[in-house]
Amino acid sequence: MEKVKDFRWKKGISVNELVESLGNVGFQSSEMKKAVDVIVKMKKDGAKIFFTYTSNMVTSGLRGFFAQLIELGMVDVVVTTVGGIEEDIMKAEGEKFIIGRFSADDIELYEKGVNRVGNLFIRNESYLKFEDTIGKMLLELYKKKPRWTPSELIHELGKRLDDRNSILYQASKNNVPIFCPGITDGSFGFHLFMLQQKHPDFVIDVVQDFRNILFCTSHDDKKGLVSLGGSISKHHAILACLLNGGLDYAVYLTTAHASSGSMSGATTEEAKSWGKVKDDSDVSTVIGDVTFTFPLIMVKALETLEKDGMLK
Amino acid sequence: MEKVKDFRWKKGISVNELVESLGNVGFQSSEMKKAVDVIVKMKKDGAKIFFTYTSNMVTSGLRGFFAQLIELGMVDVVVTTVGGIEEDIMKAEGEKFIIGRFSADDIELYEKGVNRVGNLFIRNESYLKFEDTIGKMLLELYKKKPRWTPSELIHELGKRLDDRNSILYQASKNNVPIFCPGITDGSFGFHLFMLQQKHPDFVIDVVQDFRNILFCTSHDDKKGLVSLGGSISKHHAILACLLNGGLDYAVYLTTAHASSGSMSGATTEEAKSWGKVKDDSDVSTVIGDVTFTFPLIMVKALETLEKDGMLK
Amino acid sequence: MEKVKDFRWKKGISVNELVESLGNVGFQSSEMKKAVDVIVKMKKDGAKIFFTYTSNMVTSGLRGFFAQLIELGMVDVVVTTVGGIEEDIMKAEGEKFIIGRFSADDIELYEKGVNRVGNLFIRNESYLKFEDTIGKMLLELYKKKPRWTPSELIHELGKRLDDRNSILYQASKNNVPIFCPGITDGSFGFHLFMLQQKHPDFVIDVVQDFRNILFCTSHDDKKGLVSLGGSISKHHAILACLLNGGLDYAVYLTTAHASSGSMSGATTEEAKSWGKVKDDSDVSTVIGDVTFTFPLIMVKALETLEKDGMLK
Amino acid sequence: MEKVKDFRWKKGISVNELVESLGNVGFQSSEMKKAVDVIVKMKKDGAKIFFTYTSNMVTSGLRGFFAQLIELGMVDVVVTTVGGIEEDIMKAEGEKFIIGRFSADDIELYEKGVNRVGNLFIRNESYLKFEDTIGKMLLELYKKKPRWTPSELIHELGKRLDDRNSILYQASKNNVPIFCPGITDGSFGFHLFMLQQKHPDFVIDVVQDFRNILFCTSHDDKKGLVSLGGSISKHHAILACLLNGGLDYAVYLTTAHASSGSMSGATTEEAKSWGKVKDDSDVSTVIGDVTFTFPLIMVKALETLEKDGMLK
């Protein structure tokens, strides 16, 4: 059995060394190291890797890292919420979000046309510019054909962007499908509705996309999941894998706890009862804000995999 | 300004009296009393009341209470996740869920064909029976027409149930629309896909339903929101109201905190920056498991509104 | 096995009926009902009941309820933090605390001489008046003898108060010892220090009080614990019982989670490994703000015990 | 205003670079970077630095890092709980703790003589050996004089250890006082009691130690606080500084939230109302498990301070 070992700083310490040491520190740090091991294991085992996140993480600076992971071949299937599509496009078009304060005066922000997401600020202008962009793109796509699945649509949008830090850009370039089962739940939905008002034959086929996510893996594939946060994106990836025989590897990073029976707080333990995951050495749940847990875990996994030539 | 007052038990104390007292106890109890006041105010003001919840709450015994609220005229629009549709139907068909333990052995449960959601257990048989039911219902509806919005479909399903504790039954009976923007994210999605495999013209029109949720209220309506938990259901209701000029009243009950910028943890404070809610006396965020915060708050609100003849 | 049952409101519902129903609702509500059962069981079994809380709960209106529990014979031993002593005295002397807001402007409050504890406000004057009171009381006690244990001191202070909602008053009247192992950690500590400056032979004997808490129970006693929040008070009660053979019954109410290995978040599960608690039917951990979880649980327990003539 | 910037991994990235980048990622990562800035600022400003932690962190591998911080001159005053004293001694005497599992079977552990703290295991033998050691040390100290303050006692214990990873060893060597206001709340308390049984004139003078913590700083000193977790240790440091005019800098790292008015969850915002901290650029609260938040923050601060020759 592993022992607790005293951590000590040494000058210039790398993330690789830090996370290695944290494995022997205990509490969430050991779980973090276990998450690294599970990710390395799923990659080496050739598992199909599902990756899920919520839109607030795209609001944050994790977005470029997500794009890079696709570029490096660490992700085979993405599931996210529509806000994560919108803001990726906004940023690809040059919009800048601001580091603000959790305790900002919200009435004052409103009067200045600033919207708050935790301690991040998004100006109204950013949305207005997005509306122009997306309206044009959607009309262009409608002209090709009237019936689209969300993943097809997102693939086409990605092809129209030019930003190596864009998740959509990298996904399109690397043929990684992005699923978004709740495609109307954002200002994107409003633009879809506007288009349908003018062109009633325009339709988004979410049922077909459920077929697509089911068929992008199979019972025979090894399957792994790296899920950040909760929501429909986490649940959808679990569901798709479950219908294909269950997950072989799972890493859940979340701030939610299991006490209320929510999907966000559901642990990899609970997942075992669903036949989703099978063995203790193949799962890890880490509690904490993904803006630091995910870079720590994934950087360590990348350093390890890079050494073994497992990255694109 | 209100003072802190010492709470004392008296024999036979009612929920009405307890929550009244808790208003002067402080911390989340005062926020809870404030939530009661906001709900009473939104109802008396004739606001259109949006009500959102996640599927785990339908797994729990809150389901009958949600149905009752619709019956009593406390809810004008419902937004939920698809699991909340599925389990309502399962229960309406007679399935029973079990009170288990958070610390149950998940491998053992799996072997027994039992699925765990927090401390609640659902047997595999319950899902199998649901599959029979839903498959037949969907085929019958397809025969009427090939293109359905989720809310239309759910309305029809509700008409086929006969259980006063069913949310769908009461919603259909009382003409309360239930929106479910992520309709494919459940075993329901699997059945939609199966139907589409056989009948490729079958399509679920989520874009049309976005129009429907937008048009079920207007800029002129007063609008209130009672949101339980987070997820796409909370966000969708906020979005629909925002596009109609913003919420006048909002009560958020959640276990999540604001520290990670997630939708689940987003507070009614933050909502002000989005122009969603306008005044401090009209909003309340209560942190805690909804299985007890919601009955406490809503029972108190019902007792008050009943006295004033405001219930159906 | 218990089934999930749909909760429905009926007009005038009592807390007794509500909590009974919540037992079949699931998630934290079922744990809550289990906590009721454990408390009733420990009382009926004649267990020595340890009760712990932290000072913020005395800031809140739970204080009067705690006093009432002592009056009713529900508590045999109290362990708390020194803030819980100070504020009980302040309130017994007539000070009023204010229900404020979590999001109040703290700089503004400071300038007004108002101190914030969550959403509760305490004015500087309240502390100033306390200083007068306590300084005199301590000098008077010193004149009796120079060496005091915290529990002796607190017992004497309680005898000098006259307020049935005072925890100290009821504890002194009912001969319930109040232990406070961190007696100097508050403005109380400052007054002890002032007295010692003038009278160097004045000493607080905390070691003797450790003997006292050990000797107020024995290996032969059945022992139960109702612990609210975390901190030194929770730990101290567990420790005293552990050294006497371990707890037979334990109810922990807390907002903290187990993920960081803290005492606040330590569950009754973990306690089993320490030999502290022995059986699953005799323990319960409920996650949530005690300002509502505790009244719900304890009112239900009181109603049950009162019916069986188990209250004083 | 700072902008959100996309984070990208580059091979061999150092902790220094990572945390720098995280400052522009948002949510808790930006708060983390702010915490670094506050710590660097307090050190450069020559502030007296108070450092507090709870015993579970000494159970973890952070212990060696805490010792190193004292060695490097980053800490002027320590406040902790008594478990943090005991386990430091146990480890200095060669005891090893084990990395276990949160979901271990607690009954089984108990039968094997293993105690669980989160996912860390401590064997009964470790306690038994500690008892031998501490009993002898205390008797030896009693023979010198009968009246001791906790900080004096701890200083003497530290002189008897020989382990550079020991907090007590480094504190004694570097003349950093360790305060422990709840000195009896652990097995240490039991040994103090045993000694007092034999030698009734033996007394621990906690009041004198309150004087000591007050006098180890002054109104004229700049004062900074780095507080990990909550409990009496956090509160005691804040109190001592408050009585000396308030803190100039404060960093709180915790997993608790402000919603229940607890000390663990109290933020640096709330502290402003108490006159404890004065300006926004001088405070930071980071939510997350300290086993990773603290190494990230403090390593970055050390790298910066080392470059400027500010470390011992």
Categorize the overall geometry of chain A. globular
Q: Please provide the ordered H/E string of secondary-structure elements of chain A.
A: HHEHHEHEHEEHEHHEHEHEHEHEH
- Which two chains have the most extensive interface, and how many residues on each? A-B, 76 and 76 residues
Strand order of the largest sheet of chain A: 7-2-1-9-10-11
Tally of strands of chain A: 11
Q: Rg of chain A from C-alpha positions?
A: 20 Å
From the structure provided, what is the oligomeric state, counting identical versus distinct chains?
Answer: homotetramer
The helix content of chain A, as a percent range, equals 40-55%
Uncertain segments of chain A are none
In percent terms, what proportion of residues of chain A is strand?
5-15%
Main pleated sheet of chain A: 6 strands, parallel
Distance between the termini of chain A: 35 Å
The average pLDDT value of chain A, as a whole number, equals 94
Number of helices of chain A: 14
Secondary structure class of chain A reads alpha/beta
